[in-house]
Structures
1.
Amino acid sequence: AAFESFSGFIHEQLKFFYINGTKDKIDFPIRYKEKVHKKYKKEKGKTDYFYEDLSWFLDNKAISEQEFQFLLQIRELRGKFVHEMSTCIYNGISKELKDKHIELIRLYQKINAWWVKNIEISINSSFLTDIENTNVKNLEIVFLELLEKIAIENI
């Protein structure tokens, strides 16, 4: 759930930005394709919106190269986890996977805070300008942190 929430979040934020960040709302598909899709598209292969959107956040210094690579790795692990869910249910989840899940939530929080501080506040000056990155959380992050706390306490 955390990965789907995270990947949906970064895509929706960029869509929101390219719709509301311009005067011409009709231009969204063209602006998104130029600023994100075409700019970060892999040379070969099919469209990979997660890679393209994540590349935009890397290029805009919301995440580091190391965090970028980690998130790509998480996507691969997510696929493996989904296909081997019954094994994970019976055998439990490794400490390494738990640690990666915690890091995913941390990066989700980091990007969310970066977005508010660097995009939302710059577009809408009525927002408070002294928001600390660590204090900004959306409801999905609060929910994921709660689920994580419950899971850790029950292990």
2.
Amino acid sequence: KFNSSDLGLSIRYPSTWEQVGEVESDGTLTIVAQFLSPLPKAQNGGVRANVNLVLESITPNMTLTQYTQFGLANEEKILEGFKLLSSERVTLANHPTQKVAFTASNGYTGFTMQFQQYWFLQNGNAHVWTFADEQSTFSEHLPVFEAMLESLVVR
């Protein structure tokens, strides 16, 4: 279980997954937590499925709709081959949340990656949860991400 009393949140992750990295911040973006799946069994190495939480400072009074427009435009700008698959309003940890799914190319490996993101706004920050995996194994690992989000508690 990952717990941050500073941020008032906790989330459970599978014992077979690894929490990696330290909290890192550049003033606007803060990488709070990163989790990696077990190493792939494939001989070619592949990519480890990963989940991360990033807090992004937002302008006062920014709405979820405005952040969604900003976030999607940014993803399209920085990710090669970005293709939006879906975008819908949901609730996560009792917060109005945007859920988006998209694919993009991984320039390092040549694999097509699939992403699912959830973001909500709280206390001047966008909480952005991202699940990323190779498109070919995405659906296999997606239930793990969904279970993690179901365990999310935000105070």
